[in-house]
Amino acid sequence: MIPLESLRDSFEGVIPSIIATTDADGMPNISYLSHVHYVDEAHVALSDQFFSKTATNVARNGLATVMVVDGYSGQQHVLDLAFERSETEGETFERMAIHLAILESRMSGIMKLRAVDIYRVEDCRAVPAANPLVAPEPLFLPDLMGKVARLTARMSDCGDPETLLDATLEGLGELFGYRHSMVLVPDGERGGLTTIASRGYDQFGFGAEVPAGRGIIGLAAERRRNVRITDLSRGRRYIEAVRAMAGVEDATPIPLPALDKPLSQIALPLVARGRLVGVLFSESTERFTFRHRDEEALIVIAAHLGTALSFLSEERERGEANGREKADAPADPAGSVPAGRRIAVRFYPRDGSLFVDDDYLIRGVPGRLLLHFLEDYARTGKRDFLNREIRRDRRLQLPDFKDNLETRLILLRRRLEEKAGPITLERADRGRLRLTLAGRPEIEVVEE
């Protein structure tokens, strides 16, 4: 039997598979399958979705035959299967459910995974081609562990969360060729995620939001599982085919990140001590950018990033608590507020949305933080703010986000930099932020 491990590209779902069964009279029944999933060296899993005739035949004799096609080389293989069990939970079920959920987001609830059927593979053999195939370029899959070691070493040298984020994304591009990547962190209030760092896009997109459970990023966060797609174009074709069969006329586009036409995507949850601290996402316009070895390498990097991000935030907390932070920041002398032009600041308490000169800036905790800085500045001329002061200030009525203050401040500073407006926030010293304005703020709080 040909080892299943050597056919991993045939189990990516790039090209639909075919399943054949027989009824009690020996009449064959043929159906298409969206995806045959690799479980281990001796088992595959099929989704229990559509084919009632196939299910009836398998229930009768427990046998099926599937043909899988290698999405890279075009080579075909036939697998003889024997049904073992159905699962409605567990690792295999969750992985298949996430893939289906990404497609289902455009299907108005048509595609629901009821169960996954686990089959033992009795035999695996190649299908001779009717005409000789054009041999593809030899596939070389390098060992990525050396690159993982180099990148994690760089990450370990970082002394603060912001440097860590930048070093990670730069290293993914330089060492692995993953040139379009981003990190998102939980927003802490709405249950979604917010972009805090990115590389390779036309715009940084700091502050861009992804709802929980939406798309590959939201699902990776909600389920806390890696999600890897090697060919999105095939998924889109499959959706259109099922929509046509189901008579669905209206659907919401799959929410895709910044690349116009990505073909490969991967999202990995960043988890530290059981707590979600973010999502690492990368995408490409090429098929098969993220193979199994890439996923394995990124799992290690994501684990290191999640732990380091949490540690560096807590380390800063400990440093400030031990008194290493400098004395409380004084207010500037009276009259230091520049006369400059008027800066119109509008704030909505309902969701913390903040606009500068009628242009949306940010919302949530970062929006309330900036309002706090601006109000103090307008009242006293104060420009320097200490993290310790921020945490103690009850006027902010901030949620318990002790470990996330650093990421909120990073997000706010980067968003201000990206907007290149009249307000900037820079790190003047450890645990100290400095507010700079090119004018005089006039703050309007709009109660709704």
From TrEMBL:
Residue span of region Disordered: 316-336
Source organism of this protein record: Rhizobium viscosum
Pfam family, one: GAF_2
Taxonomic lineage from the root: Bacteria, Pseudomonadati, Pseudomonadota, Alphaproteobacteria, Hyphomicrobiales
PANTHER family the UniProt entry points to: 5'-PHOSPHATE OXIDASE PUTATIVE DOMAIN-CONTAINING PROTEIN-RELATED (PTHR40660)
InterPro entries named in the record: GAF, GAF-like_dom_sf, Pyridox_Oxase_N, Split_barrel_FMN-bd
GAF domain residues: 160-318
Signal peptide: none
Domain of life (superkingdom): Bacteria
Entries under SUPFAM superfamilies matching the protein: FMN-binding split barrel, GAF domain-like
Basic and acidic residues compositional bias, start-end: 316-329
Protein name: GNAT superfamily N-acetyltransferase
